Amino acid sequence: MSTSSSTRLDQRSRDCENNPVRDFRVSVSPPNRSALSMPMPPRQQLDKMLASCEQMEATDLHLTGGELAFVRCQGQLVPLGTEPISEPDVLEMATSLMSPRQQEHFESERSVDIAYSPPGSSRFRINVFRERGRVAIAIRRLEDGFRSLQGWNLPPQLNDLAQLRDGLVLVTGPTGSGKTTTLATLLNDINRHRSCHIVTIEDPVEYIHHNQRSLVHQRELHTDVMSFAEAVRSSLREDPDVILVGEMRDNETIQAAITAAETGHLVFSTLHTSDAVGAIDRMIGVFPSEQQRLVRQQVSMVLRAVVAQRLLPSRTRVGRVPAVECLQVTNAVSHLIRTGKPQQIYALMEAGSANGMQTFEQSLADLVIRGLVDEQVAARMARVEALFTQQLNAEQRLRKSSSRNRSPDNGHNSY
Question: Is the pTM of this model over 0.90?
Answer without folding.
Answer: no
